[in-house]
Amino acid sequence: MKLSSTIRVVKVLLSSCLVVGVGACSSAPTGHSRASALETPTSEQALQALIDGNARYAADRPVNARAHSARRAEIAASQRPLAVIVACADSRVGPELVFDQDLGDIFVVRSAGNVVDDVQLGSIEYAVEHLHAPLIVVVGHERCGAVMAAVKGGEAPGHLGAFLRPIQPAVQSTEGQAGDRVDNVVRANVMNVVRQISGTDPVIAEHVREGKVRVVGARYDLDTGRIDILN
Ligand SMILES: [Zn+2]
Fold it and tell me: How close is the Cα of 71 to the center of ligand 1, in Å?
């Protein structure tokens, strides 16, 4: 990494709150959440940037809710997202909003129940291999309708079974578990998808083994706006 880039990274890290969750930021960033010319961050730096962004969002102090014309110009020619977000398609779980990230910051792959098949895995491979994203975050959420439907079971008309079937292993593995039935399945399903993505050969599994990319699970709380990292 060039010295100038190193200085930019340090500036970004210094301007970020290191508080996990809603905690108030002692030095809230005043501009874009990361340097526009930042070289590929480490997976730890990327995860911290997302945690910081979620803390700003949950505290109603976003920095990326302004006019986007300058950022659009910065990234019009190329992209270097800091993370891949695999999230549920639920309209209440907008990844750019809940992580307080701008255009070009995160590569988002969504489906009902945050499940992945070949289309999603191919998209993730592209982001990892060609865009060099160092982090993949699978985001499940509280009161997920897809998980509720999977728990309920029964006939799935049309193509609904395509996302309900992959949730079934989590439904079965959490049978009889104490606590909230749906939330238990949400968490188990997230971790199943984390394992599925991590073990997908050749591209993603190789990158994971070589330490070039990290895959983590997360749960979004619809009430507080907070993201909890599950692993
Ligand atoms: Zn959902």
Answer: 30
